[in-house]
């Protein structure tokens, strides 16, 4: 039981990170219907930006950790948003009216570019960071096996829930959110009604990248080690999560992230760690057989 | 005369403002990622500032954007057409030349090893034959994979991001059969194709109901599952260490070995030359690629090929007309997978060693990129894209001279993948419908003629 609870805690923390990345996929997919393959690498770039910003702030002599982290978060969100915007501007906007596979190929190309840019600029070695947030609570003790809830796990879950709330409000309550939903339904009609479609799409990428930046920082703090390749695996998992929950649906992305995180953690804990990805991917295939548009996705209504 | 002058300065001003904006963006992007390098040191990571590099990068963006603004995008203020601007002859050839172009390409491919080999043996010019042939074999392997994937993506319109799985199935089929039962290459070739086709159907079943990108993610997941299983099922696949000692193909039973009772060289009374085996491999893969191409072209005229194309254009209309889309989808997956498996089996025999490392998602992405960049309807386009991407990628290996420019610490091989990605994005932006953007429809009323790729959803017309 204690072991189970501990895995549950770990799974939720991991799932929250996946969920944050998955939102970026799902928002972009919802609005322009493309798989933004470079999103996982945006997350990786964000983790690097956060690492460098943190080291920079430390070396400037700011030792108050919470303040430093807030600063790092702001810097990482701003700069990563810039990356998201640039990628969209260079690689996707010119192909807006092209056929479905063209932006997919540029997205894969951008993913290669970002990965190798970081490899060239920062080296291929893994970058370790000493634990910044330590400590935690023992919530449960059963026969010597303690269930620990570390502070970083609390931070991850709280941040994720707060951000989910904020983004939910943005999408449902603000003019920008209304514009986004309008573009999602019918881009031409939205444009005719006075929505600046290009700007809305750009802002969607900016929002997705900012969330990826939060995920990158949390990943860095949680695992304490990053390299230029983390974006690929995390990206595929997060995309799987987005599809799992029903791509285009914000709560679906979060739910999918949690499910994927939990499957992975429990499979590693109770079965073999090598096949955890196989478990997650097989689960995806099985779920899609019964729910072809994901758990919370709306069925596509097709008109001929 | 004042009007042009003001518009000139105005234009310059606009260009400067735009370039400045681009420079700001570049600064924001690069200030941390390029401006500082993380260095391992005793007490953990430390930072090393690189202001010069940052300045060069931002300055480069500024100057580049300014020049683009002034001379490239600005129609009115254009210099006489730049000599290095690519004027691509192929789309203009379209209707008539495509067939002949293909024929020429095939003839060139057939003659290439004979000519270079004879030239080298006669004149001793010092051609790096071994390297040339190896490179051509690599390119042709990708051409074949591109043709195979084209059946799934271009003809049937099913986005497959896990094509490399079938490649892996083919490679491992041959490697395992050869290692455990001593089967030869020629016997395994059809077996590998069949087995890969079977796997295509196995993948096809669960994804029958899925559309578009749901399908894409499941195929991607399938590719990853196959790779992870190959990596971890050590008892059978030898895990990350891979399988080595995979036999080479024989020429109708004659091995290419320096000595033995009856070898290729002794049978034909030739002096043994290790290049014979490589030239043979070249012709094997050329033949396989041509067969794939021919089969695809013929399939397009069969009812099943028509069904694929109809399904790609509109699945509901297709079903309403009584076409069995289940059969169409499964056969498309199976056919594509079969060619992938055969190519995989060839890959195994050529390398003599395979490991899961060769079958990553990146391979799938590269094959898909070749298909799309080539212009999915066009066989010759796929071939050209494979030559440009794989061949060009290889050429970057030989850029040691750049060390003279950038100093001895410069490692050009690091930049290969970066340039590969840039090229992928660049070609797609430059020609969104692929290098060859015109299509010859499979079916027409009166006469054959090429149409723009824009008229079809994707792939062939």
Describe the fold and architecture.
The complex is a heterodimer of chains A (304) and B (461). By secondary structure, chain A is mostly helical. Helices cover 73% and strands 6% of the residues of chain A. Chain A has helices at 2-32, 39-59, 65-92, 101-122, 151-173, 175-185, 187-192, 197-223, 230-245, 250-270, 276-290, and strands at residues 127-128, 136-142, 145-150, 225-226. Chain B folds into 2 domains: 2-72, no CATH class; 91-398 and 431-455, Orthogonal Bundle (ABC transporter involved in vitamin B12 uptake, BtuC). In chain B, the strands form 3 sheets. Chain B has a two-stranded antiparallel ribbon. A two-stranded antiparallel sheet of chain B has the order 3-4. Chain B has a two-stranded antiparallel ribbon with strand order 5-6. At the A-B interface, helix 2, helix 3, helix 4, strand 1 and helix 9 of A face helix 1, strand 1, strand 2, helix 7 and helix 12 of B.
List keywords for this structure.
heterodimer; A: 304 residues; mainly alpha; two-stranded antiparallel ribbon; 73% helix; globular; B: 461 residues; ABC transporter involved in vitamin B12 uptake, BtuC; 2 domains; 17 helices; 6 strands
Condensed summary:
Chain A has helices at 2-32, 39-59, 65-92, 101-122, 151-173, 175-185, 187-192, 197-223, 230-245, 250-270, 276-290; strands spanning 127-128, 136-142, 145-150, 225-226. With 304 residues, chain A is mainly alpha-helical.
Number of strands of chain A: 4
Helicity level of chain B = 55-70%
Query: Number of DSSP helices of chain B?
Result: 17
- Uncertain segments of chain B: 82-95
Uncertain regions of chain A: pLDDT < 50 for 5+ in a row?
none
Structural class of chain A: mainly alpha
Major sheet attributes of chain B: 2 strands, antiparallel
Q: What is the N-to-C order of secondary-structure elements of chain A (H for helix, E for strand)?
A: HHHHEEEHHHHEHHH
- State the CATH topology of the largest domain in chain B: ABC transporter involved in vitamin B12 uptake, BtuC
User: Could you tell me which chain pair has the largest interface and how many residues each side has?
Assistant: A-B, 74 and 66 residues
The CATH first-level class of the largest domain in chain B comes to: Mainly Alpha
* Rounded Rg of chain B: 26 Å
Please give the oligomerization state of what you see.
Answer: heterodimer
